[in-house]
Amino acid sequence: MHRLIASGVLVMVVYAIALIIGTAIAAPTSLTGFTQVFFPQQYSELYGGITGDWQQLGQLFTQLQGDLFWKVFLGVITVVPAVFLLHFMIVGAKSFSHDGPQILFFNAFTRLIHWIGAIAFSLLVITGLLIIFGGIFGGGAPIRFARTVHLVAAIVFAFDAVLMFLIWVKDMFPALCDIHWIFILGGYLSKEKKPVPAGKYNAGQKAWFWLATVGGLAMAYTGYVIWGMQGDLDTVRLYAIIHNILGMVLVSLFLTHLYMSLFAIKGSLNSMITGYKPKEEVDILHSRYKYE
Amino acid sequence: MARMRFLCDTERCIDCSGCVVACKEGNHVPVGINRRRVITMKQGEPGEKSISVACMHCSDAPCIAVCPVDAIYQRADGIVLVSKETCIGCGYCFMACPFGAPQFPKGNVFGARGAMDKCTFCAGGPEENFSAEEKKLYGQNRIAEGKVPLCASMCATKALLAGDADVVADVFRERVFQRGSGVNAWGWNRAYKKD
Question: Could you say which of 1.20.950.20, 1.10.10.1100, 3.90.550.10, 2.60.40.3500 is the CATH number of the domain covering A53-285?
Answer without folding.
Answer: 1.20.950.20
